[in-house]
Design goal:
The protein is mainly β and about 190 residues long. It is about 10% helix and about 45% strand. The chain is built from three helices and twelve strands, in the order E-E-E-E-E-H-E-H-E-E-E-E-E-E-H.
Length: about 190
């Protein structure tokens, strides 16, 4: 689920999927999921297609189904392979105000992207300050029971389990996540290739 870091200001959109290619002969497209709530496509018929090169445009969802770790989407007015090809690379989104409501201890993955991870267990003794690990670039939800934060640190990529046992403070307003990491965890992953 590669996806570039977002700006520190929350975007007005929540990304649901990224269209990869046509799927079938009737205008369907295969998309990579960027949401934890793929079942919500059943409730969201009016979506938006985003591109870096043009203004957002509305799209009405006619049908969807989960397929091989992604989702197949069929939009109204897209009824051929060539019209489906024109959608490749677009992001399927909805306005931030319309995203799913979460429970008290839950967080949207899109809210984590761009946050700074700070290790309060590895505080710099001389300065008395926590150690900044880096900025979250992505979240891997397929690695096991806890999602893995993919953090861009000073020495490369650092992989950190987003586990409740490590979490000390989640401050989304200030884009800061304080964690108490096991000794050496940040160093163990820091030298992996980018």
């Amino acid at each position: 689920m590669p996806h570039s870091a977002q700006t520190r200001t929350p975007e007005p959109w929540v990304w649901l999927a990224r269209i990869r290619r046509p799927q079938g002969r009737k205008g369907e497209v295969f998309a990579e999921l960027l949401t934890d709530f793929p079942d919500k496509f059943a409730q969201r018929k009016h979506l938006w297609l985003l591109s870096e090169k043009s203004e957002p445009r509305p799209a009405d969802l006619v049908a969807f189904w989960l397929h091989k770790g992604g989702v197949v989407l069929h939009f109204a007015g897209v009824d051929s392979i060539s019209s489906a090809e024109a959608l490749s690379g677009l992001t399927v989104a909805l306005p931030r105000a319309e995203r799913a409501t979460l429970g008290q201890d839950e967080v949207h993955i899109s809210d984590l992207i761009g946050c700074t991870v700070v290790d309060v267990a590895a505080a710099d003794v001389a300065a008395g300050a926590p150690v900044v690990i880096g900025e979250i670039e992505n979240v891997d939800r397929s690695a096991g029971s806890a999602p893995i934060l993919i953090v861009r640190g000073a020495h490369g990529e650092v992989l950190i389990p987003f586990a409740q046992t490590y979490l000390r403070k989640l401050d989304l307003e200030n884009r800061r996540i304080e964690m108490s990491l096991p000794e050496g965890l940040a160093d163990l992953n820091a030298n992996r290739g980018s």
